[in-house]
Amino acid sequence: MSNTINITAIIEGLGGIDNIAKVGNCMTRLRLTVHDASLVDRKKLQAIQGVMGLAGDDSNPQVILGPGKADAACQEIHKIQGRLSQVSIDRVEEFNQKKKGRNEIFTIISQIFTPLIPAFAGTGLLYGIMKLLQYIYIYFGVQLFNPAGIADGGSVFMAALSVIAGSFFSIMNIAVAGQAAKVRGGNLFVGLAIGAIVTNVGALNGISMGIMDLQFKSGLGGTFAALIGGMLAAKIEKRARKVLPNSLQIHFPALFSVVITGLALLFIIQPICGIVSDALSTAILWLVYNAGALGGAIISGTFLFLVAMGIHHIVTPINTLLLQEVGYTCLQGFTSLAGAGLAGVAVGLLIRFRDKKKYGKLRSAVLGNILTQLLGISEPMIYGISLPLWKPFLAANLGGACGGFVLGLFRTQGAETMMVSGLLGALVNTKPLAYLLGYAAAVIGAAFFTCVLGVKNENMAVFLDDETENANA
């Protein structure tokens, strides 16, 4: 296999091809479920060239390979299993886990939202590009980029871009419900129907429920309601398939699923999720407005630990909630600056370890990962460099806290989309200069702490050539 990934060694470390029950991938990780956790050899996997690190547990290991490589490895395993022609390879496969534990909710959320990332990122980045075009109109008067409404003399071209940029967000609840149903073993299109109920309640909109002065409302409960509705629909559908005779399997499981879930959604799930959503968004905004810089420092200074544990997608529903309720998500800005801390670590390592002969291997690894880090992809720097060296990982979190502190001084900052981070995050932030200032603070802070904390000799050994290591012994 290309990209220096030894797929045969990875399969052996997982206990052999027959031990792999399910395999999927996100942008940087190979995500698996195995039949027998005792056959997984984590030390062997860690030692494989090209493997940046491991996350998850032995039953559901995550092998971190980096952008592009994870997808290639996933397809290679499918080929070896002889199922490629029979399997539609999604960004993340459904994992039929038997284990019920604390990590299950994180895994489920990751499975649901990871396949949606390209749509979030692509349409979201278009918002940033439109901002740049608007500045061209403001400063240079190029009419093609006039963002005003068409009736007010605006550009048809910009209106078209606006339609494209908002396309996925207009169906976000539908996509989430459909993917939730699919991940939990239900029919994708039944889930889509449930998401459509959340998005548009039709003639019921504004009508009283007759309960506690509650009213039906399109979009009520947002992503949370769609998430729960999709999973409930799958559960009811699977249950119906088990108890109904074959002659009723075509129509009735879907019928029961849509009707029962739909009624539960309209009268129970949406009202409750609406209350929870309002409370959660109010609490987060209160934290930002009142804790301000301190709250930003806490968020940005701890988020990398969630990424390292593979549970960072837990914040995605909160981001979508804030986008729907407020129009922007302040949380996305803070979590993006955690990655800026890793960029600062790269700078700090290049400054601290300037001897190209002695530290050539380390410097090469750092230089090879700077670009991806600046684009907001953190796993290579986490698992390939900062975590093995440990103190630089701490420095990255401290640097992120510095950036979050600075960004927290600007109360109305926030990303107008999701999944766009790194330097590109400035393009989608309500206060791009504030974001860049926070990013700079994170880089400078992390570089400083990296230089001060240094690296223990035993941790540096992996980046030293054999001759250099023997000379230091």
Report strand %. under 5%
* Structural class label: mainly alpha
What is the tally of beta strands? Answer: 4
Strand line-up across the major sheet? 1-2-4-3
How does the SSE layout of this entry go?
Elements: H1 7-13, E1 20-25, E2 29-34, H2 42-46, E3 53-56, E4 61-64, H3 69-81, H4 104-113, H5 117-140, H6 156-165, H7 167-170, H8 172-183, H9 188-199, H10 222-243, H11 252-309, H12 316-325, H13 330-352, H14 360-374, H15 379-389, H16 391-407, H17 432-453, H18 457-460, H19 466-472
Antiparallel strand pairs: 1-2, 2-4, 3-4
Helix pairs in contact: 4-8, 5-6, 8-9, 8-10, 9-10, 9-11, 10-11, 11-12, 11-13, 11-16, 13-14, 13-16, 13-17, 14-15, 15-16, 16-17
Quick rundown:
The chain has 473 residues and is mainly α.
Q: Can you tag this structure with a few keywords?
A:
473 residues, mainly alpha, four-stranded antiparallel β-sheet, globular, disordered C terminus
Q: What does this molecule look like?
A:
β1 and β2 (29-34) form a beta hairpin. With 473 residues, this protein is mainly alpha-helical. It is globular and about 75 Å long. The chain is built from 19 helices and four strands. α5 packs antiparallel against α6 (156-165) and α13 packs parallel to α17. 60% of the residues lie in helices and 4% in strands. The two termini are 36 Å apart. The chain has a four-stranded antiparallel β-sheet.
